[in-house]
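Researcher: I'm preparing a figure for a lab meeting and need a structural model of a single chain. I don't have an experimental structure, so a prediction will have to do for now. The sequence is pasted below. Please return the structure as tokens so I can convert it later.
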Amino acid sequence: MLAAALANIYMAESFVESSLDAIYVHGGRGYLSEYEIERDLRDAVGGPVYGGTSDIQRNIIAERVLGLPEDMRADKGVGFSQIPTSQDSGAR
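Model: Understood. Here is the structure written out token by token.
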């Protein structure tokens, strides 16, 4: 899962960056719908929505790097409000 999240975020952000570079190279014509570059930029910006936003991918990477237990990971449906705190354990 970690390798997939890393690859997903790298590819999504690289696609956006390369599409923007192509727009800059072509100047004002890059924004015209007659050129495929304009469509590529739209696809690049919308692509991360289908593959999971970059923020979600970053959360997955952070969870794996920090070594959170399986039952506390976001992909298991546990939100931050359900993570036990020191107050929950009776320590005051």
